[in-house]
Amino acid sequence: MDVHAHLFYEYESEEELLQILPQLPADQPVLHIGAGSNLLFSGDYPGIILHSAIRGIETVAETADNLLLRVGAGEVWDDFVAYTVSRGLGGAENLSLIPGEVGASAVQNIGAYGAEVKDIITQVEAIELTTGQRRTFSNAECQYAYRQSIFKNQLKGRYAITYVTYSLCRHPVLNLDYGNIRAVLPITPSATYTVKDVRDAIIAIRNEKLPDPALLGNAGSFFMNPVVPTAQFQALLQEYPAMPHYVVPGGVKIPAGWLIDQCGWKGKSLGRAGVHDRQALVLVNRGGATPDEIMALSDAICQSVQKKFGITIHPEVNFI
Ligand code: EPU
Predict the structure, then answer these.
(1) CA-to-CA distance for 314 and 309, rounded, in angstroms?
(2) pLDDT at 141 over 90
(3) What are phi and psi of 167, to 5 degrees?
(4) Which of 21, 94, 167, 319 sits CB 3.0–4.6 Å from 115 for a disulfide?
């Protein structure tokens, strides 16, 4: 379903953003978006939407081992990954094919296949929307955690990210031990792989499991993977010995996709909203689904998981 905002402003430079900000009507809310691939609008937006079209990839420092690249927030994330891989640089290849833009990568702390973008971000430049003041956040100041940052919490809605600086390795150390990467790039006595091999493998794995948003509307993982206390995990493991899990600080992470799958939701629909048939963590729009239909499905899934496992799962998608 199409939704509308009162105004949509796209700017191509920090200067242009600084000119726009004082002109925004004070009585309307402002929402800064990236490509919108992780947003679900519940209806028309009664305010102003800002979007960065700041482009460019600039080398700002070089050492024997690393290259620091300062990238405009409006660059398409996967174009940036392709750029690093084409230069043989390591650090971003496991994050291949994630939808969205560079600015949002730093808000969302995107992650996949054993990597998180926080591990390569060195700093984030931003402009405060109400004052127009520039501020540079160090990696530590961004307060990164699993799919979390200060920009989603204390500073939610307060800053427009303009540039993100990433540190890439000239001598990549490949991270191949997550999930089924090894099925595509097996360990053999003679095997030596490149960042390009890893990117190609991850693109193949993602294309196999995750629907292309251009063909079937979806926002990638709809829910975050929950972390449960160790005692609760031990009790669940008695009942479900095959339950996949990863020990993390604070407890044990259980894949939400597995929980939803166990509740029988995979491939099912509620109205025109559905659960993808190859990855239960992904909700899809089977054509013309309204925001209410997607939310009803999301609520029904959360209730099932709560009832069967006693675990509360939370959407990763941002409801607006
Ligand atoms: N599983 C099932 N049934 C399903 C889906 C998953 O049994 O329908 C099981 C799998 O067999 C596996 C486990 O659950 O044992 C984990 O599944 P998978 O490796 O596919 O990863 P995930 O935890 O479901 C996370 C990220 C993805 C990322 C993948 C790969 C979150 C919320 N999601 O998914 O991120 O691509 O790992 O690293 O952390 C995204 O954020 O949009 C996204 C796609």
Answers:
(1) 14
(2) yes
(3) -105, 120
(4) 94
